[in-house]
Amino acid sequence: MRKKKWRFWKRLACFHFSRPRAGKSEKAQDEKVEQSEKLEQAGSSRCSDDQISLQNITCDVHQEAPSSKVLPSSEEQPRKEHLQKCVEGNLSEGEIKSPLTEQQDSEVATSSESDLITRTRSLEIGLTALANKGPSSPHIIELLDWQEFPDHYVMVLQCPSPCENLFDYLERCGGILDENFARHVMQQVVEAADKCCSRGVLHRDIKLENLLVNTDNLDVTLIDFGCGDLLHEMPYSTFSGTEEYCPPEYSETGKYHGRPATVFSLGVVLYTLVCGYYPDHTDLDKIKNWLWYLPSLSKECSHLINACLHPNPEERMPLDRLLLHDWFNVIPKVVETRAPCYGHTGSAL
């Protein structure tokens, strides 16, 4: 009988659950993967526990980036530790504030770009708030509120309705979009990426899964800043994101700059939308000499893909000049007002 009781209590002792605070994790690969998995498991339970029933908001914690990962380098670690201290520094234990509420109380702010991050322990919350700083952007997910708990945090984000991520939407359309519709999507994605960089935020994981499409009006929204960082002019030596969108210079030199890497990821998005698959090394070999093209695409579209995916970051088109490319300005912008893959009729914008 004593042995049975001992086994019972021994088994019971194994049922101990804990979640690490997202803002205190190191950016090492194993810890990042473990943290993402635990936050994904916790996301659905948090939403139900808080009884969030409004239809226009959603609780989102790393739910659309299953293949994102960190490719670490020891040279980046000291800067990460310094940034983490900034993130953890300015809130006392148990204190809850909303950076958006503080922004409304003081319209004229002269603080540095990192102030919104130093008000919270979570880097993701801080970057999302910083991307929302200033006039609202229709193509960046809006942070409505956030709250921290001893072992997790909750973000309340605006959710377009009805919507689905661009990866699923592309599958519904047969895996490929025509140029007119791809142009409509890319114009919004480029605007969102440029706005983030202008506000000091490097998203670093712009991909199909992190773009929401409103299936009624085809508006596109950029989400999930969990792999992001503060934008600076110095080269980065750690890549946090999705491998298919990783700039080739990181594989060759172990370093990359924020804006050229963003342009490369935008090029991968465009390539995938109009080709239906990811670019590979044979494509990059042709792009290196500006020779890549597809007969089914316009010469302007092929040129823009060469300009975004060039292996040499110095030869890529600058982010703030992408929307000036002929593909966005010369060809008439005519798309359906509803998704063509859903069988709706449409009209010119």
Outline the structure in words:
The protein is an alpha+beta fold. It is built from 13 helices and ten strands. It has helices spanning 2-12, 29-49, 77-89, 99-105, 115-118, 123-131, 166-172, 179-198, 248-253, 258-275, 281-288, 299-309, 326-329; strands spanning 57-59, 68-71, 143-148, 153-158, 163-165, 201-202, 211-214, 220-222, 229-230, 239-242. The protein has a three-stranded antiparallel sheet. Strands 5-7-8 form a three-stranded antiparallel sheet. Strand 7 (211-214) and strand 8 (220-222) form a beta hairpin. The radius of gyration is 22 Å and the shape is globular.
Offer a few descriptive terms:
349 residues; alpha+beta; Transferase(Phosphotransferase), domain 1; 2 domains; three-stranded antiparallel β-sheet; 13 helices; 11% strand; globular; disordered C terminus
Major β-sheet strand ordering: 1-4-3
Straight-line N-to-C gap:
78 Å
Report the structural category.
Answer: alpha+beta
Helix content: 25-40%
Q: Report the mean per-residue pLDDT as an integer.
A: 74
- What Rg is obtained from the alpha carbons, in whole angstroms? 22 Å
Q: Could you please say which CATH topology of the largest domain applies here? A: Transferase(Phosphotransferase), domain 1
Order of helices and strands: HHEEHHHHEEEHHEEEEEHHHHH
Number of helical stretches of at least 4 residues: 13
CATH class wording of the largest domain: Mainly Alpha
> Any low-confidence stretches, pLDDT <50, length ≥5?
8-29, 42-66, 73-80, 82-111, 342-349
Q: Say which CATH homologous superfamily of the largest domain is assigned.
A: Transferase(Phosphotransferase) domain 1
| Strand residue percentage | 5-15%
SS elements, strand count: 10
- Number of domains as seen in the coordinates: 2
**What would the principal axes of the Cα set say about the shape?**
globular
CATH architect. name of the largest domain: Orthogonal Bundle
Sheet bearing the most strands, described? 3 strands, antiparallel
